[in-house]
Design goal:
heterodimer; A: mainly alpha; 14 helices; B: about 725 residues; alpha/beta; Rossmann fold; six-stranded mixed sheet; elongated
Chain lengths: ~325, ~725
């Protein structure tokens, strides 16, 4: 029955799942957004995520500390971002193609390393839900909160998330602030809209783009880590399975704005969570096809894209290498 | 900066090479490398000659990684096992993993084929259409693909599949046994093929164990999306599931969730115990080794394809692998073991429409079937035909939903226009899958219809085609050991007779009637001598054959006349050997007018009711238990041809629900007679008394059973004549 969906348990379940599912998209998309705002399209996000996911997983498995794993993901992602920046900025290569190259590199390399260094799928003890922390530190706090009607539900949703989820959402206002309220943000936007003018005003387009693409790599690495040591706690070949490409699409979807990206990521994830619950509860839907449910997030995303088309403007220099004087 | 463009391209190229480099791998010994691989042209000409020498070479293309703890790993492990078995010198294999792009896989398949591999495995149902195109180009190479049963009719393609629903069912039984919340969760990839079979089997097993259980199924629409699989598992746990399963390589995400929440996990394809040793209960493990060995053997013998294989619990291709560290309650484990054994034995069909079979007694349940029953007489004849009819009713009672189609009185007198073939045609058209022809009159015609309908099971009572080997495999025979009961009947007659003359109302003359009549005589003789203290040669025992199983006016002798004649000529006890009740009818009438006569009717347990005062007892057939066993076997697909001569259950001799043939003491027995008869029965039950012990002479005086010997089954069954001391014709 459809009404089964509107119970507290299910609503909490959908929100918990949706919020959690959006996490890797947020990291990757926000990072990608900076790159694109400065004029560089990085299609290698997926490959960087895979490398970050593996690095984080391996380090956490070896040293038992997820924070070290996260650091490893940051370094690996940063290096890959730097490589992408070198190809696209210094060498001025076609960005779409070089991005695919980086993706393939990440896919193959993470697979190779996984085969050589691990050989089999294992689980790891990554970041725990914050509720676990509170339950041990303040044993009386959670039960007390959970008993209160609305606050209890919210507490339940929040307590089930891990620190990486909080970081992802905290990132959104920070990204907004950097992009719209700092000189750096202005430089980034200038480099993406009119690199020649920015250059004329003394902004180093190359340096700005290096910074954003490297940042994008770091964020992609963290996005991968959020999967392998926070949400899933496993690593497998092609763990991300297309998540990175969806993250790139979400940047377009969000109109290159942090809150737009947040909206897109949440919409996509919430609808996905909803369809999981509809299936799990055996709720009859017309046509009785799980395929239709599985399509829901994608269909909805396309619908929103159609309606928002024309209201947002692509960064003018996106995808164009800048060569001074040309 | 344009001049750097080539450098960028080079970099990208280098990266792409690295990326792809990880994928096609070979486990060959280093000495074997590309240069030894013949060129394509060479292969097509000389592959067969090469096969005799050198190692057997197999290549496999797989959709996911060799260590996916699932589908691809199951094949990789099998290839490794075969290699270990045959030795690296005799067996080599190469593999390409992560071939989730079908075009890449097709290229790989073609490459391997042109490199002269003896056998190329396309390990994924998505590769079928590619294989269909490629295989005809390499007629000397053998290909195999799965999971499917479709070889496309191409002579060099093998197909293989896993009956994953079987282990799915067992996992379902286990999961339902462990579940306390009554909710189970399933994380599936795409609702198709192997995955769908497994999931459906799991649901069936769970429902069979606990009809009230809820099994929630999520198909996430991807074989690779670990994150979504993980979230689907979270959803299931959130929805109350306290047992999880899932199939395909993306379930590692779900297993992680199961472990985190301490929810029991039921694995499939490969053993997933290592991933979550605390929560994995059991795994259905695919073992392709047997199928691989068979295919390799076939290929070596020049047979390159055309067959399809299946992994089953029965052939050991599917193995239930329990996690030794997970403490499964004994009851749930026993139920699972029982289900696995029943599936392997073929007595349990996963999707056999088993409705709510309690796991404790799955063997007692069988899907309803339609049974055809052809009777030689009317179904209420108080004799032979009614006994069969009630046996049929017994089956319907014990297999709810089954249908019994009865055709009565198939004989030339009542229905001269009807033929057994016509009757059977109608029954088959109505869906009968088991047809019982309940007279040896039908023996020959049953043979004919059994050949005409090889998919229908036929049982003829009481022919011997299954014994002589004339019967096709779908025809069996059954008969009860009425001989023993007839001996009791004879004994009762001997105990009761005052004149010393017993009459036997015989039907027609054949092996069956001869041996039954002879048994009655032997029983009578034994009791006349041992309990009455008389000389056995003084006992009169006359047999009068009427010519058929019951009265057909103008054709047979009239049994009423025959019985009357017996009583008029000094016989005071008549034993009936025909299907109808004239013997006891007439005896009852004669008793009413003051004659001291008795009768022993035949066939039907309640036949004494007609005239209790003259009834010494009745030897009866109870076909219910044996018909039920047959119907269940047919329903479960386990029926096999047999010739059954079913003994009595001596401890329950008068209970038609338990024994196949029986005896009920009649009200006309005096206490003294009863005591003697009970002693006789006890002696027969214990084996102390065997009326078929020698010396026994045939009617013509020849020795049949020598002194000190006892008759064998065959000697009894094929008794050629009546015995010395009996009056009446033998032929």
């Amino acid at each position: 029955m459809i009404s089964d969906l509107f119970t507290t348990t299910v609503l909490i379940g959908i929100l918990t799942s949706g919020i959690r599912l959006a996490t890797p998209y947020l990291f990757a998309s926000i990072g990608e957004m900076f790159g694109q705002r400065s004029g560089v399209l990085n299609l290698g996000v997926e490959g960087m995520m895979l490398m970050g996911a593996f690095a984080a997983f391996y380090v956490t498995l070896t040293y038992g500390n997820p924070w070290l794993g996260l650091l490893a993901a940051v370094i690996v992602g940063g290096v890959m971002g730097l490589a992408m920046a070198f190809i696209s900025v210094t060498l001025g290569a076609e960005q779409g193609i070089s991005g695919i190259g980086v993706y393939l590199f990440g896919l193959g390399m993470s697979d190779l390393l996984f085969q050589r260094m691990l050989g089999t799928v294992e689980t790891v003890r990554g970041f725990r839900p914050v509720g676990d922390f509170f339950a041990t530190q303040f044993p009386n706090l959670l039960p007390a909160l959970l008993a209160i009607p609305i606050i209890g539900s919210i507490t339940s949703i929040l307590a089930q998330q891990n620190i990486m989820v909080y970081l992802a959402y905290a990132l959104v206002p920070v990204a907004w602030f950097v992009l719209y309220r700092t000189t750096l943000g202005l430089k980034i936007r200038a480099a993406g809209e009119n690199p020649a003018a920015a250059d004329a005003l003394g902004v180093s387009v190359a340096r700005t783009r290096y910074a954003t693409v490297t940042l994008g790599g770091i964020m992609a690495g963290i996005a991968g880590a959020s999967l392998s040591i926070a949400l899933l706690n496993v690593f497998q070949q092609n763990l991300t399975s297309g998540l990175g490409f969806i993250a790139v699409a979400l940047v377009y979807f969000g109109g290159w704005r942090p809150y737009g990206v947040l909206f897109g990521a949440l919409l996509f994830s919430m609808v996905n969570a909803l369809q999981l619950w509809i299936q799990a509860l055996n709720i009859p839907i017309p046509f009785d096809a799980s395929e239709l449910l599985i399509m829901m997030p994608y269909v909805l995303t396309i619908v929103v894209l159609i309606f928002s088309a024309g209201r947002v403007r692509t960064p003018a220099a996106l995808g164009t290498p800048y060569e001074r004087g040309s | 900066m344009k001049r750097y463009a080539w450098l960028a391209l080079l970099l990208i190229l280098a990266m792409a090479v690295v990326a792809c480099g990880g994928t096609p791998t070979t486990t060959e010994e280093p000495t074997i490398s590309e240069e030894t691989a013949p060129t394509e042209a060479a292969v097509e000409e000389e592959t067969p000659a090469e096969e005799a020498t050198g190692p057997f070479r197999v290549a496999v293309v797989m959709p996911s990684a060799i260590n996916d703890l699932a589908f691809s790993q199951s094949m990789y492990d099998a290839l490794t096992a075969v290699q270990n078995e045959m030795g690296a010198d005799n067996f080599e294999f190469a593999y390409s993993e992560n071939m989730f792009v079908v075009d890449d896989a097709a290229t790989a398949i073609r490459d391997y084929a042109s490199q002269g591999y003896d056998l190329v495995l396309a390990h994924g149902s998505q590769y079928g259409s590619s294989l269909q195109e490629i295989a005809p180009d390499f007629p000397d190479t053998s290909f195999a693909w799965g999971t499917t049963v479709d070889t496309f009719g191409i002579p060099n393609i093998y197909a293989y599949e896993a009956r994953s629903e079987e282990g799915g069912y067992v996992n379902g039984v286990l999961a339902a046994g462990l579940s306390e919340s009554g909710i189970l969760g399933v994380v599936g990839p795409i609702e198709t093929g192997d995955a769908k079979l497994y999931v459906d089997g799991f649901v069936a097993g769970a429902k069979a164990t606990n009809p009230d259980i809820t099994v929630n199924v999520n198909y996430i629409g991807s074989f690779s999306d670990v994150a979504l699989a993980s979230e689907a598992a979270n959803t299931q746990v959130g929805a109350g599931a306290d047992g999880l399963t899932g199939t395909a390589q993306m379930v590692v995400g779900a297993i992680g969730v199961a472990e985190e929440n301490g929810v029991p996990w039921f694995g499939t394809q490969s053993s997933q115990t290592s991933l979550a040793p605390d929560v994995v209960v059991a795994n259905q493990v695919y073992d392709w080794t047997g199928i691989l060995n068979t295919i390799i053997e076939n290929v070596k013998n020049g047979e390159l394809g055309g067959t399809s294989f299946a992994l089953t619990l029965e052939n050991g291709g599917l193995v239930m692998d329990y996690n030794p560290d997970f403490d499964v309650p004994a009851e749930a484990k026993a139920a699972a073991d029982e289900a696995a054994a029943a599936i392997a034995a073929g007595t349990l069909s996963v999707f056999g429409g088993e409705t709510a079979a309690p796991a404790e007694e799955p063997a007692a349940e069988a899907a309803p079937i339609t049974i055809g029953m052809v009777l030689v007489g009317p179904k209420n004849d108080h004799g032979w035909s009614q006994a069969h009819y009630e046996g049929g009713e017994f089956v319907v009672e014990n297999m709810p939903g089954s249908d019994l189609i009865v055709f009565e009185s198939l004989n030339p007198a009542d229905k001269p226009e009807a033929t057994l073939e016509g009757v059977v045609d109608d029954m088959v058209a109505e869906g009968a899958t088991l047809i019982l022809t309940t007279s040896d009159e039908f023996e020959e015609d049953t043979l004919g219809v059994a050949e005409k309908y090889p998919d229908v099971t036929f049982v003829n009572v009481s022919g011997d085609d299954a014994l002589t080997g004339e019967a096709p495999p779908n025809l069996g025979n059954v008969m009860g050991r009425m001989e023993d009961m007839k001996a009791i009947a004879g004994c009762a007659a001997a105990l009761a007779t005052e004149t010393g003359n017993i009459g036997y109302l015989g039907p027609l003359i054949n092996f069956e009637t001869r041996r039954l009549t002879a048994s009655a005589y032997l029983g009578a003789r034994y009791c006349y001598e041992n309990y009455r203290g008389m000389a056995p040669e003084d006992l009169g025992f006359a047999v009068s054959w009427i010519g058929f199983w019951f009265n057909i006016p103008g054709v047979t002798l009239d049994p009423t006349e025959v019985v009357t004649n017996f009583f008029d000529t000094g016989t005071d006890v008549v034993l009936s050997g025909i299907d109808t009740t004239e013997a006891i009818d007439i005896a009852g009438q004669r008793a009413e007018v003051g004659d001291a006569v008795h009768a022993v009717p035949y066939d039907f347990v309640a036949a004494c009711d007609i005239a209790p005062d003259v009834c010494l007892g009745v030897p009866f057939f109870s076909w219910g238990p044996s018909y039920l066993a047959m119907a269940q076997a047919v329903s479960n697909g386990t029926w096999t041809q047999s010739w059954d001569w079913l003994p009595a259950d001596w401890n329950n001799l008068s209970d038609p629900a338990l024994t196949n043939v029986g005896w009920v003491n009649g009200p006309a027995l005096t206490e003294e007679m009863s005591a003697s008869l009970d002693e006789f029965i006890a002696g027969m039950a214990s084996g102390e008394i065997n009326v078929w012990a020698g010396p026994i002479n045939l009617q013509d005086g020849t020795t049949y059973i020598a002194d000190g010997a006892t008759a064998t089954d065959d000697e009894i069954w094929y008794l050629p004549q009546l015995l010395e001391g009996m009056e009446g014709s033998s032929e």
